[in-house]
Each structure stands twice: as C-alpha cells, then as structure tokens.
Amino acid sequence: MSDPHAAIAAVFRIEFPRLVARLARLTRDVGRAEELAQDAVVVALERWPTDGVPDNPGAWLMTTAKRCALDGMRHARIVDAKQRQLARDRDTDLRDVAGELADALDDDVGDDLLRLVFTACHPVLPTQARVALTLRLVGGLATSEIARAFLVPEPTIAQRIVRAKRTLADARVPFEVPRAAERAERLESVLEVIYLVFNEGHVATAGASLTRPELCDDALRIARVLAGLAPDEPEVHGLIALLELSASRMMARTGRDGAPVLLADQDRARWDRVLVRRGLAALARADELVATQGAAAGRYQLQAAIAAHHARAVTAEATEWPRIAALYALLAQRAPSPVVELNRAVAVAMAFGPDAGLDLVDALVADGALAEYHLLPAVRGDLLAKLGRGDEARAEFQRAAELTRNERERDVLLARVRDSALSASRGS
Amino acid sequence: MKVMMFAKATKHTETMQPPTEEALLAMHQFNEELEKAGVLLDLGCLTPTSRGVRVRYSRGKCTVIDGPFPESKELIAGYSLLEVKTLAEAVEWAKRAPFGVGMHDGEELEVEIRPLFDPSEFDVPGEAEERAKRVGEKLGKA
C-alpha cells in the first residue's frame, strides 16, 4: 500500500460526501459547497503526497475548505470594490461559520447527508443531471469515473454537473429534507435515481459488455447510506432488497465470452449468498414496516418479493411461478407500466403455459407502447418457439436483434434466429 | 470489490477478557460508521480457540484436534466483510478502526486485509457452468 495517490483517492471517496454535506449546511448552497470541497481537495492533492495524509483528514479538509472560502472573499474584495460592503457582510457570515465549524464537525452529519441526497435528486433537475449529481456528491465519484461508467466524454459530465448546480441555485432550492406532504414524492425521485444507476450497471443499454458491475456497487452503496439516513421508509428497504437480490446474481448472469445467461440456465451456486441474505433481510424489514404503518406494499418491495422467490428457489424448476405471476399482478396495479406487463406475461407463461402468456404479449403488441423495446419481440419469439411456431419465432428474434443496442444481447438473439430457422425447417 | 478484514487474536481475546467499556463503545461506533457509509456487508466476533476445534486432512484420513491453539498471533478473533472501491479504501477504513483504544504500552493487535477473489478473475466465464453440468451428469450416473 505504498501508492500515496491511491490512499488519497480513498480518503476523498470517504470524506467528500460528508464534506459537501457539512459545507452545504453552512453555505445553504450545494453548488458553492461542492466548489469549496473541490478547492480543499486541490490543496490536499498538492500537500498530502509530500506531507502525508493527516490523522483526521475529514477535519483537515473542512478547515481547508473554510480557508478557501475566506480567501475567495478577500479576492472578490480586491477585484471589485463595489462589492466591499457585501464582502464585509459575508466575512461576518463566515466568522459565524467558523464558530459553527467545531460544532458541525462533532455533530452527526446524517441530517445534512439526507438533505444533500434530496437536493441532488430534486425534481427541478433533469433525470441525467440528478444521476450525475448524486454520484458526484453522495457517491463521492470523480467526474472522470462517472464519465467512464456512462461511456460519455468527461466534459459532458462536468457540464451536466455545472448546469445542475446552476439550476439549483436559480430555482433557489432550499437545502432541506422536504416536509410530510412533499416527502413521499421527493423520496420517489431519490429511489428512482438509485434504481436508474443500478439498472445501467445491471444491463448496460449500450456498449460491448453486458454489465458494468461498478455502477451496481455505487448504487447499492448509496442505497445503503440512504437506509441509515431514512430507516423508517419501507420503500428504501424494498429498493435495497431488490438491488441486493439482483446483484447477488451478477456473476452468474454472464457466461463464456461475456454472453448473457438466462435466469433458468444460471449456475445458482454462483449466486452471492451474502447478498441474498442481506436482500432477504431488507425485504423482511420492508414487510415489517409496511405492516406496522398499515401501508400498501410499494413497487420496489413487490419487485424485491419477486426476486426473493427466485433467490429461494434451489433450482429453476422449483420456482413458484404462480406466486410470482400473482405478485406481478399486484405490481401491475401498484405501478402499471408496459414493461411490468411484459414481465407478468413471462411469469404467466411459466405458470400457466405459453398460450396464456402470448395472449398478454399480443395485447401489448396491439397497444404499441413497447414498439421499440427489443424484449417485446424477444419474449414473443420465445413463446412462439415453445408453441412450435418456428417461422414466426424467427421473425420476432430477428426484430429483437435489430432493436437492441447491447452487442452481447444481440449475439444471443441472433443465435436464437438460427435455432428457430433450424427447428422450423425440421418441423416442415 | 469485497475485502475481508481479519482482527487477529490477542492474549485478551484468547482468555476472553472483556474489553473496556470505552473500547467497546469505540468499536460499536466504528462499525456503525461503516454501516452508515454503506460499506459493511457482514461482521462477526469469534470465541476463543479453547472453544474451537481443528480438522486436519491428509491423504486418506482426517484428524480432529481440540483447541486451544498456541500461536495466538496467527489466530483470528473477528472479521468484517466490506464492499469497497479499492484496497486503498479498505486500508483507509482500517486506519480508522479504534483497536488501539485502551491498549497498554507494548501491546499490539494486527488486522489483516484480504481481497476476495472476484469470480471473473479466476473463473473463465462460462467454465463454472460447464463444470457444474459435468459434475451433475456424473452424479446422475452414480
């Protein structure tokens, strides 16, 4: 462990979110807080490689950030005399801030982190901006890391974060945890962002590899942090359960050459038991909270319950498909969407036969909402193949292969095109 | 990446001397910090080796040896399973662990950090499936 840069990067990852959260409480401006934290990081990068990492790096960074703020003020005063009065006011503010500083460092940073999470996921921001800002501020990722994870150039992410901070400032978004009436809706936005990050890692929408596990890890980490900050929210635990259970299958999901392996064909011995156990425990917590609060099961909790059925099935054949189909029916009521309906069709087909599933899929085709979604023809093709309708199946797989942007998925779909052609010619 | 942090045994852990309240509190707070940071997956505290056994294997036989075991510096007293970005991050967390709290002069405790294999690192993708299938076929025949 002789590489000082690796050690410094590790300290930043641990300290950055807490630093921004504390600074945001003092400045009441997340954008300004992030800039000050970044300034402190720059100073640390200059000094730590020669001086060594200080004993209490969190306090060091906070003190340095405060000093950067004061320097910034003095600089502004010299540059623009007209702002003298303003700067003097701000200096007074900053002296108060310095007084509060010792308290701030001793306080539990939890409330500030929760405010930070809600602010980064504020609905005034476009979804992509929420994702970038959350990974940066709450996940402690560098912009270069976020850029790599999403396969976009670094300046794009940097721009996205700059614009997001400006939007928050322009909209005068307060640094606070929303009150009761607004809280549920705002929490929904937070959970959605975490879910999006996880999903992008779980099934990369584009690119050469099927998964990007590091994004899943980032999402899980943020979700676990959130559970500590908002322990009484059932859907937070529902989301964690869903993510832990999905992540437990990560290693079994890709086979030789990085090709995807379907759930039924996965080697269940490769599922991560620690994550399965954590997932089931989080689901139990969500169930318990829902029961005591007299609430209805949320969408993430229901999806986790479905994932839990798979996790508990020792073999693919042991899967309780009728129970899963019933859970999908509940989910379709709670959070109706064509994708849920498509998943329900798969479960119904497994439970009651391909004909029953095909009816649901055909209704979706008629509906037209998933016209560009490659899994619709992929599922339809699979059901047709099971019904021995090889020619129709082949056309569906062909269409699915044309629609997907993930190369690994395309390979699998094209293989099924060839298989269907074979079975169709054998059938005739 | 997942890493296992092993706390090695000491004279105190082997004789089941309870830690001071101060040390206990500090350790509790540290674990809570790990949990809140979303890095702690699992942890456990082991009883002294006087309660343990060893099972030693050699060609054709196995021998059961009752504890306690003498080489206390190589014994494990507890573990934490962490999910971190890098080994350096695990080291950074370990540096914050309050194992030194309440220690006397000359006393020492060691923590060993060992990354787990990433399955993709030592398994050729797909090989595990094929091996499992082969084993399944053999079992089916037997």
Descriptive report:
- The complex is a heterodimer of chains A (428) and B (142).
- Chain A is 74% helix and 0% strand.
- Chain A has 428 residues and is mostly helical.
- Among the domains of chain A are: 4-107; 372-428.
- In chain A, helix 16 runs antiparallel to helix 17 (375-386) and helix 17 runs antiparallel to helix 18 (390-403).
- Chain A is elongated, with a radius of gyration of 25 Å.
- Chain B is of the alpha+beta class and 142 residues long.
- Chain B has a single domain (2-141), classed as Dimeric alpha+beta barrel (Alpha-Beta Plaits), CATH 3.30.70.
- In chain B, the strands form two sheets. In chain B, strands 2-5-1-6 form a four-stranded antiparallel sheet, with helices on one face. A two-stranded antiparallel sheet of chain B has the order 3-4.
- Chain B is flat, with a radius of gyration of 20 Å.
The number of domains of chain B: 1
Helical residue percent band of chain B: 25-40%
Shape of chain B: flat
Largest sheet entry of chain B? 4 strands, antiparallel
Order of secondary-structure elements of chain B: EHHEEEEHEHH
Which spans of chain B of ≥5 residues are poorly predicted at pLDDT below 50?
A: none
Overall mean confidence score, pLDDT of chain B: 87
Please identify, by name, the CATH architecture of chain B: 2-Layer Sandwich
Question: What would the CATH topology of chain B be?
Answer: Alpha-Beta Plaits
Strand runs of chain B, count: 6
Based on helices, strands and strand pairing, what is the structural class of chain B?
alpha+beta
CATH class of chain B: Alpha Beta
Order of H and E elements of chain A: HHHHHHHHHHHHHHHHHHH
